[in-house]
Amino acid sequence: MSEPLVSVIIPTYNRARLLLERSIPSVVAQTYPHWELLVIGDGATQEVVEAMETVTDPRISFVNRPRQNYPS
Predict the structure, then answer these.
(1) What Rg, from alpha-carbon coordinates, does the chain have?
(2) CA 33 to chain centre
(3) What DSSP string describes 40-63?
(4) H or E stretch including 25?
(5) Are 13 and 20 spatial neighbours (Cβ–Cβ below 8 Å)?
(6) CA pseudo-torsion sign 71, 13, 34, 27
(7) What is the DSSP letter of 23?
(8) What is the β-pairing status of strands 6-12 and 60-65?
(9) In this predicted structure, what is the pLDDT of residue 51?
(10) Residues contacting residue 52 through CB under 8 Å, at least 6 positions apart
(11) What is the pLDDT of residues 45-65, one digit of tens each?
(12) Is the dihedral of CA 22, 20, 24, 9 positive or negative?
């Protein structure tokens, strides 16, 4: 029986530096080998888009959704 896949989801808006320096390396450093990382932009800034374009690990994907209007 194969080990289950663990999905890690990180929502983001404008934290490119933290994604590259802290969040993504934290997931990559885990000892459990069967994982995927989904970074979901909430209308993320161009800086985040460009930062995510530098990530080459095939287990990591990025989707930038249109910015949502949240109630007050």
Answers:
(1) 13
(2) 17
(3) EEES--HHHHHHHHT---TTEEEE
(4) helix 24-28
(5) no
(6) negative
(7) I
(8) unpaired
(9) 96
(10) 16, 19, 39, 41, 62
(11) 999 999 999 999 999 999 999
(12) positive
Q: Tell me, what amino acid is at 15? A: R
Both tokens assigned to 30: 């885990």
User: The tokens 């490119």 sit on which residue?
Assistant: 16
Q: What is the pTM of this model?
A: 0.86
Q: Report which DSSP code applies to 4.
A: P
Q: Contact at 8 Å (CB) between 41 and 66?
A: no
**What are 29's two structure tokens?**
């450093």
Sign of the Cα torsion 22, 54, 62, 59 reads negative
pLDDT in tens, 6-29: 999 999 988 999 999 999 999 999
